[in-house]
Amino acid sequence: MESGSVRIVSLIPSGTEILAALGLTDFIVGRSHECDYPKEIENRPVCTNARVNTNAPSGEIHDKISHLLLDALSVYEIQTEVLEKLKPTHIVTQDQCDVCAVSFGEVEKAVESLTHRPSEIISLQPKFLQDVWSDIERVGKTFGVNTLQIIENLEARVKIIQARTKGLSITEKLPNVVCIEWTEPLMVAANWIPELVSIAGGKPLFSVTGQASPKLSLESLISSDPDIIIFMPCGFDLDRTRQEASILTQHPEWGKMHAAQSGRVYITDGNSYFNRPGPRLVDSLEILADILHPEIFQYGYKGKGWEVL
């Protein structure tokens, strides 16, 4: 591809990471306000902003988002004047969750308002690991990039973990795992997360692979008495996750759970890893392997991707 012939705007962090993995960083001319990886992307113009104060408590964020969606408003705004100046040939977005990124409908409206030639919209909608591979392949095909080696390398890392955890259910009881995606209200991580937990040698509780994240009462969490609890709130780094976790850990019944008593409650950087369905989902799987079976795995993410709470 010739420089200038392709001008990509990515409105979703996982899309930006896929483009980077394909060697297309130089063709990205604009990004969403949440796209922060790889580092060299941070100097690109920002094309979106949030209608929600993400520094607010999780309960307040949830209430604000609920009201916006009830009023048929997007949680995020597209800065169409920036798009107009950037003249993108392609826009990478998603059609899965109106809370995670700009809604697909908003992107369509923005593209219709542009005066230059129409931009091609590439919409990602992953629910399983295989969907992520398919998205990588589709993006690569769009821009003429061979993705075979990239996908094979990612799959090979997954297969290493599968091979090591395959016989665990025969030799020992797999740990029951609850992955918390939000604290107020309490929600359990779903979509690809139960799949990752299963591959890493755990039994996911309260969530089903490929389905939306369900709400859960604190009473149900406590009564389930999981072996392992992992906090991975959407959009929060380790420090913010530690703050949010304290909302639950201060409950008088919290300490009665097996996970709390055995020191198997963990926080993760959900913003960098678990909440972004791109290449770093394999990093997320390796983090889970570290947490669930430290006797088998030591990938070295502790202190960067996860910590004991």
Q: Could you describe the largest sheet, including whether it forms a barrel?
A: 6 strands, mixed
> CATH class of the largest domain, anyone?
Alpha Beta
CATH topology of the largest domain: Rossmann fold
Summed over residues and divided by their number, the pLDDT gives a mean of 88
Count of beta strands: 12
H-E string: EHEEHEHEHEHHHEEHEHEHHEHE
Name given to the CATH architecture of the largest domain: 3-Layer(aba) Sandwich
Question: What fraction strand?
Answer: 5-15%
Q: What's the helix count?
A: 12
Structural domain count: 2
Q: Ends: how far apart?
A: 48 Å
Q: Give the helix level as a range of percent.
A: 25-40%
Descriptive account of the structure:
- By secondary structure, the chain is an alpha/beta fold.
- It has 2 domains: 8-125, Nitrogenase molybdenum iron protein domain (Rossmann fold), CATH 3.40.50; 152-308, Nitrogenase molybdenum iron protein domain (Rossmann fold), CATH 3.40.50.
- Helices cover 38% and strands 15% of the residues.
- It contains 12 helices and 12 strands.
- Strands 7, 8, 9, 10, 11 and 12 form a 6-stranded mixed β-sheet that branches. The protein has a 4-stranded parallel β-sheet with strand order 2-1-5-6, sandwiched between helices. The protein has a two-stranded antiparallel sheet with strand order 3-4.
- β1 (8-10), α1 and β2 (28-31) form a beta-alpha-beta unit.
- α6 runs parallel beside α12 (281-292).
- The longest helix has 18 residues, at 148-165.
- The radius of gyration is 20 Å and the shape is globular.
- The N and C termini lie far apart (48 Å).
- 44% of the residues are buried.
- The mean pLDDT is 88.
